[in-house]
Amino acid sequence: MKKNKTANIMAGVYTLIFVALFLVIAGRFMYIQATGEVSGVALDEWAEKQRSASFTMQAQRGQIMDKNGMVLAYDRPAYRMYAVLDEAYSENSPKDLHVSNTEETAKKLAPILEVDESEIKSILDDAVNTGKFQVEFGKLGRQLSQQVKEEIEDTEIPGIYFDEEPMRYYPNGMFASHIIGFAREIEEETEDGIEHNITGVTGMENVMNEVLGGKDGYISYQRDRYNKKLLDPDEIIQEPEDGDAVYLTLDQKIETLLEDVMTQVDEQYNPAKMNAIVMDPKTGEILAMSTRPSFNPNSPDNVENWYNDPISSPFEPGSTFKIFTWAAAIEEGVYNGEETFESGTYQPNERIEQIRDHNQGKGWGEISYDEGFMRSSNVAASKLLWEDIGADKFYEYIKAFGFEDPTGIDLPDEAVGRIQYNWPSEKLRTAFGQGTTVTPIQQMKAASAVVNDGKMVKPYVVDKIVDSTTGNVMEETEPEYVGQPISAETAEQMRELLTSVVNDENGTGAPYKLDDYIVGGKTGTAQMPNPEGGGYLTGRENYVFSFLGMAPMDDPKLMVYVSIQQPELEDTESGSAPLSFIFNNVVENSLHYLDVEPDENESDGIDEVEFPEVVDESTENIQTDLEGKGLRPIVIGEGEKIISSNMEAGDKILPNEKVLLLTDEPTMPDLTGWSLREVMEFADMLQLQTERFGNGYVTSQSIEVGKPIQEGDYLGFELEVPSGDTPSGDSEDDEADTENDEEDTAEDEGSEEE
């Protein structure tokens, strides 16, 4: 009886427990049925998500174009590889649709991807061991080309699949890299998994990222457990909105020309840095801009310099700054170009350190201020500031030319120079570009006033933004005047002075003369501050050599600034050698490309000679005839008949000009004293292979005088600058004497008085 009583009690307890559990479970079911939620998760949404597949449809990133519509950056298709590992994926299929043999798969993929088999096998085995449905291959399987994708598909490896993904591509490689910048793929983790988006990192790619990026779309549909679309998939498609196209002011042909010559100079002279800007001075459009070191945006690894130096790196400009000193003096009405002064040295009073001209303070005796500009006299600049303009008034012109403000160019990271203008010695040195720092783009903006009758233009690089779908222009940049520091009359007088620098016999810019166009400009040779011991670095290469020029001077279509820091020069070379190579090639060829009519030769009243027909004519008769016309014929060879000339029948040439006449029995002439241009004309006539050494005029040659020559022969020749002549211009433009390297200390400056 006692045992039965205990059993009945325990049965009752268990019954109560089971009833309680039933009520809890039933209540839970009733709650779930009523609310449709479990732990705050809506079951209908969860179920929808489980049976639905959703994929992002990436918007195509907008293209970056040059001003003429040439593509500079665009998305091209690439492929991301992944492997399906779940056996269930192959159910009801006559062949495997999943990776059935990891070893065999790795063996076939490795040679195509150029990696070790073990690396691929490890990825696959790890995924199998962890029960993953599919796996990607990281960097190994990303951004694969169409060719690689097809090679893998040809192997018919089961379980290997591809998703298309965009890859940003720059067809011109190292081309305006600091302006265009680059974009790269960024992985972002979302609720639906990892998304891969292209995002701008530097340059225009970064600045215009929202414009270029567009808006992604998506596609969703209902699926089965194997990710296959149902017969009634309830499909939803939201089309992506592609990014808009950004047109830059860059001209691909001019930029390519600039990049090519910059690369040649970089290889030959191994400078620390180089910068160049080509601008339309009438509008402010940047047609080309380049800097070295540079990088290829398709593989931006180990980049030496992220800064776009022409706008981001201020430095002491040197004598190019004298443009603005002379402009201020003319505008103030205190300039008399014919007035003379004693060049060499200048010291306003005993408390101010002496200023010296760049030729160790020797000067050129008593010269006019016009000649002082041509010769780039530091003394002339200092005297104009101190005695004529006034230091305070000149500072107003510095501000009016915009040297204390950014230009506002539509590029990132623009910097502003620092005007050192407190002590008397600083003010004097600022007049010739020492101590004070500016950027190249600040100088270009300021110098545009000389072209535009006194009005400065704002430089810019974004031409327009175009809707990639409709082709409609959404935004367009218009040229903008941003100040008028000088009058039209002053600007005209400055253009005349700049022309004299290049074309006058006393000018420092002789290396920048062009055959077809009249050039004006100003040379500069800026000392470099010593980062360790104070003062300035010494040595003939420790300078920033520069030139700011424009052409053609009757109506300038191009303005170019080019600088080179610490080039490795030959003993016979000056800083103008690499600069003039860049400037002359870019300007001459660009003006021809832009269909700018060449300037007519100015004969100063001397009648030009029309060159006669000489081919197949008697050598003796032609020589006599040309000498009678006042020309200087150089007969090449001993033949009796002329077969070629460097001039064509009908050409207009000036008297006393050298003319090359190639006979039917050519022999090597004596090239001593010939210019590089004359040698190259001679070499072109015979298609000779040439190699030159140095600059100036020919002093020696590899082929003996009088030796028979024929097409394709090798000709080496050395050039030197004649003693007493100016070596290629720039070395006579050192803003500060190399013997005057030390800056004034603050204590010395504090005791000076104006």
UniProtKB/TrEMBL annotation:
Transmembrane segments: 12-31
The reaction(s) this protein catalyses: Preferential cleavage: (Ac)2-L-Lys-D-Ala-|-D-Ala. Also transpeptidation of peptidyl-alanyl moieties that are N-acyl substituents of D-alanine
UniProt-listed InterPro entries: Beta-lactam/transpept, Beta-lactam/transpept-like, PASTA_dom, PBP_dimer, PBP_dimer_sf, PCN-bd_Tpept
Annotated GO biological process: cell wall organization; peptidoglycan biosynthetic process
Region named Disordered: 713-754
Keywords: Membrane, Transmembrane, Transmembrane helix
UniProt name for this protein: serine-type D-Ala-D-Ala carboxypeptidase
Compartments, as annotated in UniProt: Membrane
Gene Ontology terms: cellular component: plasma membrane
Amino acid composition bias (Acidic residues), ranges on this chain: 730-754
EC number of the protein: 3.4.16.4
CDD domains on file: PASTA_Pbp2x-like_1, PASTA_Pbp2x-like_2
GO molecular function: penicillin binding; serine-type D-Ala-D-Ala carboxypeptidase activity
Root EC class: hydrolase
Domain PASTA intervals: 605-665
UniProt pathway: Cell wall biogenesis; peptidoglycan biosynthesis
Sequence similarity: Belongs to the transpeptidase family.
Species lineage: Bacteria, Bacillati, Bacillota, Bacilli, Bacillales
Organism: Oceanobacillus sojae
Domain of life the protein comes from: Bacteria
